[in-house]
Amino acid sequence: EVWRAGIRGLDKTVDDITKSVVNHVQTSLARQAYNIDDLGAYQAAALSVRDNLLVNWNETQLNYTKKNPKRAYYLSLEFLMGRTLDNALLNLGLKDEYKDGVQKLGFSIEDILDKERDAALGNGGLGRLAACYLDSGSSTELPLWGYGLRYKYGIFQQLISPEGNQLEAPDPWLDNQNPWELPRLDVTYEIRFYGRSERSHDGSGRAVWAGGQEVVAVAYDVMIPGYGTKTTNNLRLWESRSKRGFDLNSFNAGNYEGAVESSNSADAITSVLYPNDHTSFGKELRLKQQYFWTAASLADIMRRFKNQNKPLAQFPDFVAIQLNDTHPTLAIPELMRILIDEEDLTWDQAWTIVTNTFFYTNHTVLPEALEKWPVPLLEHVLPRHLQIIYDINLFFLQAVEKKYPGDRERLARMSLIEEGQPKQVRMAHLAAIGSRKVNGVAELHSDLVRTTILKDFVEFEGLSKYSNVTNGITPRRWLDQCNPELSALITKTLAVDKNVWLKDLKLLKGLIPHAEDADFRKAWAAIKQRNKERLAAHVQSTLGLTVRTDAMFDVQIKRIHEYKRQTLNILGVIHRYLTLKVMTPEEKAKVNPRVVFFAGKAAPAYYIAKLTIRLIVNVAKVINGDPDTKDYLQLYFLPDYSVSLAEVLIPASDISQHISTAGTEASGTSNMKFCLNGGLLLGTVDGANIEIAEEVGESNVFFFGHLTPAVEDLRYQHLYHPVPIEEKCPALANVLNQISSGLFGNDDIYEPLLNTIRQNDYYLLSDDFDSYIAALAMVDEAYQDKEEWIKKSINTTANMGKFSSDRAILEYAESFWNIEPTPFK
Ligand code: 26Q
């Protein structure tokens, strides 16, 4: 209890809390305490918690100002935060007090927490990783800030039509006022677009960029409390606003029309999160988002640095900037522009600073996901930056040519510019050469980065720059908050305070001996069961569907994508259904009932992914309505997947599926969340699955499928020596034919999806189907032995310590950023 007193902003008692909540009802919400509803109670409670956070936030910033440590900045276009209230209460150590406080006022804390809307400013893994890293940065007391965009609309809401089509609706998450942000109307920067860049003729390399459009960036600050610490870091999100009357002066006559066009208007820039992951289209508005955000963030970082009155050469001694994928890569030419055009440094001085400041994390090797920007678009929107990119390229290729004289193919491969109609700038190459370190997000993925997309760069610059930081997850949200009963059992069993093991997750190993204790196993299994019932109740209340809870819960939740192979899963479900249909009652009696859950969004323009959803929904209708099978197999597609839905699904899972084609999933992070909650993993030998198996033991995971080195050869075979699917994989061919013959709907709508498999089968479903079905059978068999299964579950949780995002963020801090914990009393 002593640790709590030190971190509460205002050190509140239950009495203080009720007073403060009532006060906010009356003064902030201007309502009467006697007729407040759950939403009002949520808002008032949130405002009261915010008062606590503010005290710590102010002290944290003051501490940094006094001590002037080197700081790190995490630049991410996505922060998938989810809900805040429960997490803030946990981190402040005020959960019990607020529970009692609101109860005194006649409310239940669960109902209040449930009123909060998710902050869904991200697509998936990359955005949620950024959110976990901020939590860990504050929890380990690192001077780490986030910079992002304050989208007016987050990731779209997903609706499923009766026919099974995904429909998209906007996510107006700011419609109720957001108690978690602090508008900073005094922190603003003017950001230029378009115009002209004139190089000077004095040999200095400087240029003057003028004209065009100027847009104002306004800061909104989000407080990020650490768990069990006073450190409360900042996430600064930028909103775009027009300069109003003033900007007309800066427009050329020729640009005037563009200025009043709505797609070009200033507030469009931060209006909506782009909902596609893993495909990059050269959209002008997306480019403007990227520049708006990187330019505002760098101006802010530069202003903070300059307040210290240090020479610019010391910039990298005080500033480290992590680029979350290539999305913020324009920060590299932008810092060059500031240093050369505004600060009068020479090119070499500027380049030395830049290449010691930035660090680049790659999250994918899929070719369609690698960002490229058309040169004509860059020239139009950011003329000065294009000049700088060309200069970087020139000096870089001169150095390459010096090391490999006459190797023109190598120069073409390594160039920042890809030839073609139009020419394009390769952002991953720019991010790599402009950074001090480059990393992938799991061992296998980092190897693939080094041996495929950046192979030439490793050869040229040396291996030591190209490294790995395996992803992690925050155990606060992804164990204690989402699975409070399991957390309490762990605390009791380890006999250490939870604020100790939640910050030193390797202590979970202390559970290992208890796997042999029958009473402990019973308690462990009972919690899993109650989590299943909690999920079933949620499905009942939100969708009106009755889920049986005496079955194995089998879960696949992630963005819908061909490489993640939800199609393999649904074809496996159909295979199971067809098998059940021909079983005798005696055979069926031996079958373990299974409930299969899917959830995930498809990018709105991703036709094949949307068809996959449609197939799942329509298969569910048939299976759930079939009296022959419904006692043995149920199937649900849960709409509108979100962080909050994940928090209910993950603790309820017995087995989860992470079945990407080997070499395609960079890491995965939900795999870690399931295993931390005692769910077993069914997966391919891919991404972080491999490291999870290393930690928990291969006997506790179910692996199947071809390995990464085989993938290229198999694809080659598909193209040049195709074997008819009936011959290669009769079981799969049968499933496809059943779909075609109308078992799940009578028209030909699924043919384009089925043809991706029948034709070149790029993601190798036909190569992995048989071993997938065999792995599913092994899962069934293992589940028959309940005691052994529970042991596996316990041992899995016990060995997941490595995957805490505290470990990951400390690796970044120590081996890349060179920053240190900076606590205060
Ligand atoms: C790019 C250009 C234009 C518009 C959008 C994008 C874009 C947006 C989001 C491209 C990619 C993303 C998101 C990628 C992502 O979430 N990657 C995942 O990152 C996780 C964290 O490292 C990994 O665990 C996953 O394996 C990886 O797929």
UniProtKB/TrEMBL annotation:
The modification N6-(pyridoxal phosphate)lysine is found at residue 673. Its cofactor is pyridoxal 5'-phosphate. Belongs to the glycogen phosphorylase family. This is Alpha-1,4 glucan phosphorylase. PANTHER family: GLYCOGEN PHOSPHORYLASE (PTHR11468), GLYCOGEN PHOSPHORYLASE, LIVER FORM (PTHR11468:SF3). It holds the Pfam family Phosphorylase. Its main location: cytoplasm. Keywords: Allosteric enzyme, Carbohydrate metabolism, Cytoplasm, Glycosyltransferase, Pyridoxal phosphate, Transferase. Allosteric enzyme that catalyzes the rate-limiting step in glycogen catabolism, the phosphorolytic cleavage of glycogen to produce glucose-1-phosphate, and plays a central role in maintaining cellular and organismal glucose homeostasis. NCBIfam families: P_ylase. It catalyses: [(1->4)-alpha-D-glucosyl](n) + phosphate = [(1->4)-alpha-D-glucosyl](n-1) + alpha-D-glucose 1-phosphate. GO terms for cellular component: cytoplasm. Its EC number is 2.4.1.1. It is found in: Cytoplasm. GO terms for biological process: glycogen catabolic process. One of its GO terms (molecular function) is glycogen phosphorylase activity. It is an enzyme of class 2 (transferase).
